[in-house]
């Protein structure tokens, strides 16, 4: 998440040319849209004065319903009322672990890496289409209140979102008829809303506790560039869990007071969960909350929960957020004293016990003067405003960084990193590769994402082939592979054989599938696996070397075997067989020794070939054609 200073002179518009640009926080639980009006970033409200649009879409018999209305119908029509669709963005069926607990009907599709589809009353729907409905509702809201068509939008995504999830978000926006100026990382947006980009240098923590997810990001700001030092979190921890604690407490109370208690049906569960959420939110500013409701079996619920009791009930959840926080600090190799500021994001950070825990841990008062559930949208709007050129030209435009390294598979299943993690976007890097075999006319390239040394431990994003390479000796072809990541974090790769100009391109629309946990896991594993990786790399390299020498010696023997005695030939062949066996074992040192032994055994043969080639050249033959 880096912020790069780009000023585009001559682009600042006169007031009457003010372009309508918006920032959108497409959240798991709630979505918002904001814009900059008279120099102030403001969240736009709907006709009823609601700023937050619940991220719930219902395919009703008479059309699509989004937001509060859809939310109230969730229990009555669970299959057609989709909440938290953000969890499925850019994901395949394979990636969605706990499907049994999700009330939707997934289309069971054997095709791996295909994005999930949900069966609804209105037919099959992808998460992209469902998200597009949320975006459409926000777009209409903005156009009503701003009185014109939008020029463009900045949409925020979690910092750990991979290519597939970012691409899916962009697709949803396009489907909603929005012109996406840029995708922006949520923690970066929060930092921008607080103006951290134009005041101070230093390291900041963005603590984001939303409805169903917890994300912590550590950003370092130096000379206008924000770098993500670490991200961590818990994809199954948020405000909903606090609701659930209250819900369980209420059930216990009801059970205590009623002798013939029957299990709750879906509707009662939903009712009590909603009441629990309201009580939780009420307790943020009040000492006690009353929970009153009538269950379908006639049981009357009427209980009172005190703020103190609520804090006790949920203390373990608050504590649970500190583990990923600590891990992020450890990954970034930072002490509490290194943190210049802590920004609270997400509606659930309104709870006083959360604020206290963060304050206690970081030994400083977190920044809370902006609404924690609006701060991401506010920052996105500031960014959108700058991107359409409404601001004077010394304003900052922000650019993000790549969340994971991008690279290519090389011989032996190794990863050659081309764009390292945390590179500022947009970025382009090129690297030259060569062929492994004589006369090789095609090359298969696998693009991978991850921090590990071995392809098997990284995620494969795409494969493509470069064909039509003119046949050349191994190592003679010069294949330049260029990786380019645009400002939204989307990757395109091209490969070009330099001598012939043969070219192959691919826009990496990666196979849908990496889960946020996997990224965290992959990052963690890359630290933990560093030693094992080094060993694996040594082994793979040794094997590649062994393969190359065996191949060239075998070819030379076939070609020039008559230059040496039968006995010498047999010695070399024995060394080859020996090396082939050694190469199958896991001992890199032994393989390297075998390579050395084979080299040694072929010294006389190499000399003989050299002499022969010299005399052939002297005889007018072309020396180029003779090589060892
Ligand atoms: P997301 O990022 O997941 O879309 P939000 O940032 O909108 O989510 O946070 C939603 C969560 O914040 C919900 O669990 C909601 O109950 C909680 N929340 C909102 N207002 C309050 C409040 N006043 N006190 C406690 N929790 C709140
Ligand atoms: Mg959020």
Structure description:
The protein is α+β, with helices and mostly antiparallel strands. It has four domains: about 20-240 and about 315-400, Nucleotidyltransferase, domain 5; about 240-315, ATPase, substrate binding domain, subdomain 4 (Actin, Chain A, domain 4); about 405-530, Substrate Binding Domain Of DNAk, Chain A, domain 1; about 530-615, Substrate Binding Domain Of Dnak, Chain:A, Domain 2, CATH 1.20.1270.10. The protein contains 14 helices and 25 strands. Strands 1, 2, 3, 4, 10 and 11 form a six-stranded mixed β-sheet that branches. It starts with 20 loop residues before the first strand and ends in a 10-residue tail after the last helix. The structure holds adenosine-5'-diphosphate (ADP) and magnesium ion. Magnesium ion binds near residues 27, 210, 346 and 376.
Strand content: 15-25%
The low-confidence parts are: 1-16, 393-399, 509-516, 620-628
Based on Cα principal axes, name the global outline. elongated
Number of domains: 4
By DSSP (H or I, 4+ residues per run), the number of helices equals 14
CA radius of gyration is 30 Å
Q: Which architecture of the largest domain per CATH? A: 2-Layer Sandwich
- Overall number of strands: 25
Q: What name is given to the CATH topology of the largest domain?
A: Nucleotidyltransferase, domain 5
Main β-sheet description: 6 strands, mixed
CATH class (first level) name of the largest domain: Alpha Beta
**Span between N and C termini?**
50 Å
Overall pLDDT score: 84
State the secondary-structure class: alpha+beta
What is the helix fraction of residues, given as a range?
25-40%
What binds here, in terms of ligands, is: adenosine-5'-diphosphate, magnesium ion
CATH superfamily of the largest domain: ATPase, nucleotide binding domain
């Amino acid at each position: 998440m880096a912020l790069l200073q780009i000023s585009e002179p001559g682009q600042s518009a006169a007031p009457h040319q003010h372009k309508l640009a918006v920032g959108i926080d497409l959240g798991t639980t709630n979505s918002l849209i904001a814009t900059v009006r008279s120099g102030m970033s403001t969240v736009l409200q709907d006709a009823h004065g609601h700023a937050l649009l619940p991220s719930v879409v219902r395919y009703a018999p008479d059309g699509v319903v989004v937001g509060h209305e859809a939310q109230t119908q969730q229990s009555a029509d669970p299959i057609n009322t989709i909440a938290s669709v953000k969890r499925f963005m850019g994901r395949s069926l394979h990636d969605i672990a706990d499907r049994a607990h999700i009330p939707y009907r997934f289309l069971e599709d054997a095709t791996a890496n295909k994005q999930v589809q949900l069966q609804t009353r209105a037919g099959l729907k992808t998460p992209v289409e469902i998200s597009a409905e949320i975006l459409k509702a926000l777009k209409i809201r903005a156009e009503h209140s701003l009185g014109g068509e939008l020029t463009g939008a900045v949409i925020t995504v979690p910092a750990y979102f991979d290519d597939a999830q970012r691409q899916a978000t962009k697709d949803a926006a396009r489907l909603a008829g929005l012109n996406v100026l840029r995708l922006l990382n949520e923690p970066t947006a929060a930092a921008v809303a607080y103006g951290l980009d134009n005041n101070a240098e230093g390291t900041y923590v963005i603590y984001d506790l939303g409805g169903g997810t917890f994300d912590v990001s550590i950003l370092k700001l130096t000379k206008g560039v924000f770098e993500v030092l670490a991200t961590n979190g818990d994809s199954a921890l948020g405000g909903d869990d606090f609701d659930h604690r209250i819900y369980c407490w209420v059930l216990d109370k009801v059970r205590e007071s009623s002798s013939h208690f029957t299990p709750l049906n879906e509707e009662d569960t939903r009712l009590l969960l909603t009441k629990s959420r309201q009580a939780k939110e009420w307790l943020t500013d009040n000492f006690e909350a009353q929970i009153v409701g009538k269950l379908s079996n006639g049981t009357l619920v009427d209980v009172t929960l005190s703020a103190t009791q609520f804090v006790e009930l949920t203390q373990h959840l608050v504590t649970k957020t500190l583990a990923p926080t600590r891990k992020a600090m450890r990954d970034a190799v930072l002490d509490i004293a290194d943190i210049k500021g802590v920004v609270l994001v997400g509606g659930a950070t309104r709870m006083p016990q959360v604020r206290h825990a963060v304050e206690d841990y970081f030994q400083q008062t977190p920044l809370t003067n902006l609404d924690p559930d609006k701060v991401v949208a506010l920052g996105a709007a500031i960014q959108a405003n700058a991107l359409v050129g409404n601001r004077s030209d010394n304003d900052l435009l922000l650019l993000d960084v790549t969340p994971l390294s991008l690279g290519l598979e090389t011989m032996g299943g190794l990863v050659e990193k081309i764009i390292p993690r945390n590179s500022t976007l947009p970025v382009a890097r090129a690297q030259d590769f060569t062929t492994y075999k004589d006369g090789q006319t095609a090359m298969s390239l696998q693009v991978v994402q991850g921090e590990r040394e071995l392809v098997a431990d990284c995620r494969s994003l795409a494969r493509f082939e470069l064909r039509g390479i003119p046949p050349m000796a191994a190592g003679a072809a010069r294949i330049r592979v260029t990786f380019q990541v645009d400002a939204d974090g989307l990757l395109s790769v091209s490969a070009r054989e330099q001598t012939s100009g043969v070219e192959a391109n691919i826009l990496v629309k990666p196979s849908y599938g990496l889960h946020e946990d996997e990224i965290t896991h992959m990052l963690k594993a890359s630290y933990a696996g560093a030693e094992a990786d080094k060993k694996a790399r040594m082994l793979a390299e040794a094997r590649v070397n062994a393969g190359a020498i065996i191949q060239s010696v075998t070819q030379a023997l076939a070609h020039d075997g008559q230059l040496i005695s039968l006995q010498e030939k047999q010695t070399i062949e024995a060394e080859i067989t020996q090396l082939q066996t050694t190469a199958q074992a896991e001992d890199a040192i032994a393989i390297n020794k075998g390579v050395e032994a084979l080299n040694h055994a072929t010294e006389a043969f190499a000399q003989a070939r050299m002499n022969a080639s010299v005399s052939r050249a002297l005889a007018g033959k072309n020396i180029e054609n003779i090589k060892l």
